Amino acid sequence: MLRTATRPKWLGLLVLALLGAALAVTAGRWQWAVAHDRAREEAVREVQERPVEPIADVIAPHEGFPDDGSGQRVDVTGEYEPGSGFVVVGRLLDGREGGWAVERLVVEQTGANLPVVRGWLPKGEEPPAPPTGTVDVVASLAPGEAPDTATGLAPGTASTVDLAALVNDWPGELYNGFGFVVDERDGSVATPPDGLERVPPPLPDTSLDWRNASYAAQWYVIAAFVIWMWWRMMRQEARRDDTPAQERAVVQTGES
């Protein structure tokens, strides 16, 4: 079989088969990327089309985070508690190192605490004080992050938004989630970020666009089929080449 496979004819066909398989794999990878991109676009559009809801209509203190709550924008009225904020370190924004400025917002309606990310600040800088008095905040909700297990951090810093730790650190009830500030108003005037940059809310979990994912799978099958067809055709010819020699061996054995 090796002798047949190394003939110029089959080597040439093998090159064509490999080229065809490579093209099919490339097309499959493109369709796979499209499947992810379309799912992401659908998720973004779905979140953006949701109306802003009062926080009381979405989640209550100590209530489990809703399954479809990621990215839901809520309207919250309350006051920032001075001296309760901290910085979540190790967060990038457009490739720059820095952290999230997290503040404790006491919700007016319930008196419970809602951690909110007011914005991003460069590494090493101190977060500005939040506005005083009653503020109206539109925030994009997110579930709590993994427990903060980092050691050696400076006071007033953390590595995650650890809700379990905040339950012990902040008096009063706590919402089982946190928010990224989208808009913040003191009365009717939008308050500036005070040197902070707003953090784009993370996208909710997205699945694949299954139609494009199926197209990708078809291209991968085609790539495997092309190689298999070359192997099958080459093996058939190799068997035809070997058959006469076998028959001669049988005849010679019979005559002797």
UniProtKB/TrEMBL annotation:
The chain crosses the membrane at residues 213-231. GO terms for cellular component: plasma membrane. It is found in: Cell membrane. It is a multi-pass membrane protein. Keywords: Cell membrane, Membrane, Transmembrane, Transmembrane helix. Pfam families: SURF1. CDD domains: SURF1 (cd06662). InterPro entries: Surf1/Shy1. This is SURF1-like protein. It comes from Janibacter melonis.
